[in-house]
Design brief:
Shape: globular
Distance between the termini: 51 Å
CATH superfamily of the largest domain: paralog of FGE (formylglycine-generating enzyme)
Number of helices: 12
CATH class of the largest domain: Alpha Beta
Structural class: alpha+beta
Strand order of the largest sheet: 10-9-8-11
CATH topology of the largest domain: paralog of FGE (formylglycine-generating enzyme)
């Protein structure tokens, strides 16, 4: 066994509990967004999941998990009911720490039954658990951000954001050809990254940086949110029904000054930083607006996720990891896909209504920062630290 893996898991446990301890009991169990569970549920769910795989599946011991599957298996309880069902925060965190420490002891001194189980080939189970928990840490950051948005903190300083007077991007050329996408490292990869495959791409261009806050403000000031010609039917209906006028994390102080709200509170918007908190619908509306108003950008589009991965693996793609970057294509199974380690990790989301995102945000943990990692969401979602990068054909 890789001796560093239990230490990584321990650090993740510490991070999750640290995020939780800043909250009151009420905040711990409050649902701040319809798509997000209360933060406390995520902490308990992660302890439950690792206990399920370690004790119930490997050692055939369901004594803990059988009593809690009604609460921590997502299909068994609706999100609004999860918070009220949690124990008091102090009691809950003590239980989580106790069980996770017991699990760590098993991982650190594995028995022969553990070592010989098929799930532990090449340390698969520990790597799966670490990545599972890492994704929940990012989701917990989403919860904390939504909490701050509801608290409506005031801007900490004078507005520093002004709209770009002219929108220019440096595009890098990527030569077409045959390329490998997906992960050859099966113990590290999720099922939707497998099996690795060879694809063929034409020459393409990708912008050297994501779309910035200053560029997005130019879209706002050009009344991009008020003109249906940029949106398409589904996007326009969503925009009007939800009264969308700015990115999810932006706040307007009623003097046409915008600032952003993060998991820690209010911050001034950095003009050159990647815009965050936009949906797939908004990303495409921005592209349509730019196509119509800039001759040099008349052929821009979102990148296909294969283009993004090939560019990132080349080592030439800059400023990744600021935001999850929307890709133009639907989330789909690779040829030869097999669901693993359970049927519904990826399979339900191949529904022709989820789009791929690549890259990662400032909250994304190291275990899932890889070129082949595939995120996926419905086109209306924007609580997910998402932005965009531009692509173009070469002719």
């Amino acid at each position: 066994m890789n001796k560093t893996l239990p230490k990584q898991l321990q650090q993740i446990h510490t991070t999750m509990r640290s995020m939780a301890r800043q909250l009151s009991d009420n905040d711990y169990r409050t649902q701040y967004h319809q798509d997000l569970s209360p933060l406390g549920w995520h902490v308990g769910h992660c302890v439950f999941i690792e206990t399920y795989w370690l004790r119930e599946i490997i050692f055939n011991d369901p004594s803990i998990t059988s009593e809690l599957d009604w609460l921590y298996i997502p299909e068994n309880i609706l999100k609004p009911k999860r918070g009220p069902a949690l124990p008091p925060i102090k009691e809950h965190l003590q239980w989580c720490e106790k069980i996770s420490n017991e699990n760590l002891a098993i991982f650190e001194q594995p028995s022969s039954a553990y070592i010989t189980h098929e799930l532990n080939a090449k340390d698969y189970l520990l790597k799966f658990i670490i990545q599972h928990h890492s994704q929940h840490i990012e989701t917990m950051a989403m919860v904390l951000t939504q909490r701050q948005l509801q608290l409506k903190p005031s801007s900490p300083s004078k507005n520093t954001l002004s709209a770009s007077e002219e929108i220019n991007y440096d595009f890098k050329y990527y030569s077409g050809g045959k390329f490998d996408v997906g992960s050859p490292l099966e113990p590290d990869a999720f099922d939707n990254e497998l099996p690795p495959q060879q694809i063929e791409l034409s020459d393409f261009l990708l912008s050297d940086s994501p779309v910035s806050n200053a560029d997005w403000l130019a879209f706002i000031e050009a009344h991009g949110y008020q003109q249906n010609k940029y949106w398409g039917q589904d996007g326009w209906e969503w925009c009007k029904e939800n009264k969308i006028t700015q990115p999810e994390s932006w706040v307007n102080d009623n003097h046409a000054n915008f600032y952003e709200v993060t998991s820690l509170g209010a911050n001034p918007l950095n003009p050159v930083a990647a815009v965050s908190g936009i949906s797939y619908f908004e990303a495409n509306a921005f592209i349509k607006w730019l196509q119509e108003n800039s001759i040099q950008h008349k052929n821009i589009r979102l990148p296909h996720e294969y283009e993004w991965e090939v560019a990132d693996k080349s080592g030439r793609l800059n400023r990744t990891g600021e935001v999850w970057e929307w890709c133009e294509n639907l989330f789909h199974p690779y040829p030869g896909f097999k669901a693993f380690p359970y049927e519904n990790y990826s399979k339900p989301w191949f529904d022709n209504n989820h789009f791929s995102l690549r890259g990662g945000s400032k909250y994304t943990q190291p275990s899932i920062r890889r070129s082949s990692f595939r995120n996926f969401y419905n086109p209306d979602k924007r609580h997910i630290f998402s932005g965009l990068r531009l692509a173009m054909p070469t002719s």
